[in-house]
Specification:
The chain contains six helices and ten strands; from the N terminus they run H-H-H-H-H-E-E-E-E-E-E-E-E-E-E-H. It has helices at 5-22, 27-34, 38-45, 53-62, 67-71, 177-185; strands at residues 79-80, 83-85, 90-92, 102-108, 125-132, 135-139, 142-146, 151-155, 160-164, 169-175. The longest helix is centred in the first third of the chain and has 18 residues, at 5-22. Residues 187-193 have low confidence and may be disordered.
Length: 193
């Protein structure tokens, strides 16, 4: 799936705002860090000003991320199914990311937020499998139903939220170092381990 320029432009703008909000920065604070005027930053976030490469580089640094993560679009292989190892009674899910992971088991009872402004974005990569029930994954402008034994994997620079679909669900999540830090800094409730 190719993403059109307008979609990428909108996604980058949402990421900038989501990262700013997740880090607890006001428009003024981020503008100061990025050496931009507050009105320029506001117009960038709201789509009223063209995105310039030099500003994106400066904003990525000010948000403690890389330009690559700020403009990343690879979300095609989000949902995966397990490979069944019948001889050993195991289900295995391939994970694309490297070492330095945190594994979390969590019971979710609430649906994902209905306000897109409450979705979070932060550096990192996340993977989770639904152990029971059905989870809803909001990822950018997309909504996925992740059923029992299905897994989802995505870059956490995409604004995202996870919740239960109607009744409680239980997930097992794996976060790389950056994603784990992003969830800790967001003051989320401690997951059940």
């Amino acid at each position: 799936m190719e993403q059109e320029d307008g979609d990428l432009d909108g996604l980058v703008r949402k990421r900038i705002r989501a990262l700013r909000v997740a880090q607890g920065l006001s428009l003024e604070e981020l503008a100061t860090r990025a050496r931009l005027s507050q009105s320029t930053l506001s117009r960038i976030e709201n789509g009223q000003r063209r995105l310039a490469l030099d500003q994106l580089v400066t904003l990525a640094r000010a948000l403690d991320t890389s330009l690559d993560q700020l403009v990343e679009t690879a979300t095609d292989d989000v949902i995966t199914n397990p490979a069944i190892d019948g001889a050993h009674g195991l289900m295995r899910w391939p994970i694309k990311t490297g070492p330095g992971m945190t594994v979390v088991r969590q019971r979710m009872t609430n649906p994902p937020p209905d306000n897109p402004a409450r979705m979070r974005a932060h550096p990192g990569h996340e993977w989770f499998v639904v152990l029971s029930g059905t989870a809803i994954l909001l990822l950018g402008n997309r909504r996925f139903r992740v059923e029992t034994n299905q897994a989802a994997e995505f870059p956490t620079m995409l604004p995202h939220a996870i919740g239960a679909a109607g009744r409680p669900c239980e997930i097992l999540g794996i976060f790389d170092r950056d994603a784990h830090r992003g969830h800790q800094s967001a003051d989320e409730p401690a997951p059940t381990r």
